[in-house]
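Figure 2 data, in text form.
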Amino acid sequence: MLGKDSCGKVFLVKKNGDGKLYAMKIMGKKKAATLGCIESLNVERDLLEKAHYPSIPKLEYTFENENRVFLVMKNFYGGELKERLQNLTRFSEEITRFYAAEILTTLKYLHTDMKIAYNDLRVEHIVLDTKGHIMFVDFAKAKSMDPGLVSAEAISQRRMIDFWQFGCLLYELLTGEKLADFELDEENILNENHLVSQIKWPAYVSKTARDFVMRLFSSKVTLSF
């Protein structure tokens, strides 16, 4: 098993005949319905079928039976970003900038080309490919940002959640510490100033890095792609 999320598990599998390795995600239909993951399951399958981007797994096959849905992707697994962070304790700003750029350009692709908000951005949901580049692997909480399907208010909030979580992730990469109680929900949006005031920055993090991360926590964030 390579990983799991609330709706399924990902396994390293070998295809009969040619012996090629793939990553296969198995999702139970009943569990998905119980957890309210049906929309996300459909969004994820649709996204992986249509996406053509280096940091999003390439879907090779998809099939289902009465109880489960199977998504078979090109094998991309080269290790966990979380494990690398734990080994180094924290990343330098140079390394963090490299990963930040890859994550931000992936969000740009999802938001503008796929009309999708990731909405679950955390170090546990990003792995490295065989060349050390990031890969988004868990789309269990992905939400549509298609203006034909959801309101402008919902689109704005889903975009803001991605930026908020991006800030939390960058803080963790820079310091090696998680920001406690920083899940973004309606209550936290209303109390954003109180939450942001609790952030303590180590002296080794530059003013430029701090400023960039803190701007991501603003409900008025307007990163333009």
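Caption note: Residues 152-175 form the longest helix (24 residues).
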